[in-house]
Amino acid sequence: MKKIALATGLTAMLALTACNTVNGAGRDLKSAGSAVSDASGKNKGK
Hints:
By secondary structure, the protein is mainly alpha-helical. Helices cover 93% and strands 0% of the residues. The termini are far apart.
């Protein structure tokens, strides 16, 4: 019984960590995309 509880707890922790990592990566990509969009918009008028 203790092994099942331990395995369940470890799986839950790994899943939560993965979600945070993917969320952070998504924010980084969004920020980079915004920077590229802003830079391309500034150069259009030249």
